[in-house]
């Protein structure tokens, strides 16, 4: 049976629509192309590996991280009295002191102090052949110390190269000099006159280097570095940039189980730098914290002492008045006293006295904030509340006021720096006063509630005589003053205790250390894989795009599946210079393939006892229909079948050249009545094969091929020959071949491998399945099998087995050799 031949009866319209439709993406062809282009993947893999290696060794800047953990001792905190905390009134129990410390660690004032104290605006690097490496200050043999009174150019590389006798050569970039220079004194830029690039200069330790845009000296590192550097590159930055760079790399978190333990981390390009910064940052915070605590506790102690002195006077006066009433009015023994009500009133008034005392302290704190009297600030614990955010905002506000005083000596009131500092002050002031307002509101609410309770309890005293009520009022006043005195006395004791036992409430649990931690970023391994993967994906992507946009026929199985037209045979690539393959290479695989087509044509044409007219056509020119026609006619002639080959492609004559025939007279002359049949029939070297060429190109080829004379011409030839092979025009360009197919017994449609477009088969497929064309078969031409083995519908089998002429030049592919070796091992 012919491959692909099937009975096509009762096809539905849906089935018909599917015929001629090819898959958008041919997976098999895609995979074959991938395997065929394996060397590109090997090349790109090598390029990706080398690129990733260079990236990891010479380009990627490692990012390191170090951390420090500390504990906040709430029982020794300077501003807190937990039993009286306003948080209990609000129903909160957060780690306010931890929040304060976090805000301080991330505050501009704290980090700006560190930048100036540690000269962190000076950044050190060293450069190798390709890559620059960031250094810790301690890794450099010398430190660069700038003259802060002199204008300096920032973001400008200063290269320091060690020379003989402890000297160093200072060299600056070839270009990049700026006339806008920075002052570390007032932290602003100033323009100067243009200048020439300073020449290289050799200086010694502690010798000043001076140029229009720089002034600095080199100070020897007291600790000899373990690394010998060929060069040191120093870049200066502004204080603001240095502070912002630090804040963005510092993180503060609290332990999930114990919220009084803080974990502070910092990332950077140098591990030692992150370690040194964290330890120094916490040390400075401890110092500042201790100083603030001592100052505020002293202020609180003085404030409470003065308040106690005032209250003591009021208490003595109230006691004297109460004694006077007892003696002069003889009211020391009041009968029928309601002791229960009086005790309740006494308790309420004690609470009232405590709240009033705290509100007075609160007013003192508010006045200090509003009048900028931070040196006289008392502890919030004197006002009965603890709020880390308030403490942090006050500390920030204090630093901002100091900063404003510095800037005011340089800038005008309407300048941008002053406007910005005023904005920051306003923001910090809003935060601090907002906290005070919240506390004041709570106290006011509590006071109103207590006053109401006192009023309700005092209503029972209206039944007493006037003198007795006078005595009770005096007694209540004395009790209230006494309660205020006792409240202040308790807070004074707490303040004195705290002052006497004052110590840092910040304890470092684990200091930051260089333990040889590996970098946390970048993800060099992931980046390397991405580079290699990207390089491998590039040829894969190109092949994929090529496959998606490739509309050529490349897959025989897909061709049969899409068209459902019988496949008569597969013809291999013609390696000969001419098209007479069957005649010149009769033992070749291609010649054998034509013999297979000769046998399969019988299944299309039906009865074998009459002459056969075979039309050979294709979609467009160049698909090999003339080549197929010549060799099919040749193989039929060699098979003792009287055969004639007709060149009916009148627009593009070809056949005469291969058979060395003169094309002056041909079919076009006969159809116009100029010649007889005998004049246009030419003999060939094959006894049973004759050829009739197309002749001169006529002006009306379609009319001639569709004429009645052409029909009679074919009928006459049927009487003379067993097979009539018609080389017709392409059906994709003209309709001539369709007219010739009406008189044929078999129709061969040529599809060329990797040449014929898929969409070109749509028309012939539709006509075939609509029964407009009968006895149609496909011939797959110019197929090149690259596997070297396997069957290909009549082509390709036998390579390497000595069956065909090509086998003598056959070289077994590497993949086949490997496969055969593996098979041999497992078959032992």
From TrEMBL:
Belongs to the CpsD/CapB family. It holds the Pfam family AAA_31. This is non-specific protein-tyrosine kinase. The chain crosses the membrane at residues 38-56, 529-549. Keywords: ATP-binding, Kinase, Membrane, Nucleotide-binding, Transferase, Transmembrane, Transmembrane helix, Tyrosine-protein kinase. InterPro entries: AAA_dom (IPR025669), Bact_polysacc_biosynth/exp (IPR050445), P-loop_NTPase (IPR027417), Wzc-like_C (IPR005702). GO terms for molecular function: non-membrane spanning protein tyrosine kinase activity. Signal peptide: none annotated. Residues 612-734 form the AAA domain. Its EC number is 2.7.10.2. It catalyses: L-tyrosyl-[protein] + ATP = O-phospho-L-tyrosyl-[protein] + ADP + H(+). It comes from the Bacteria. It is an enzyme of class 2 (transferase).
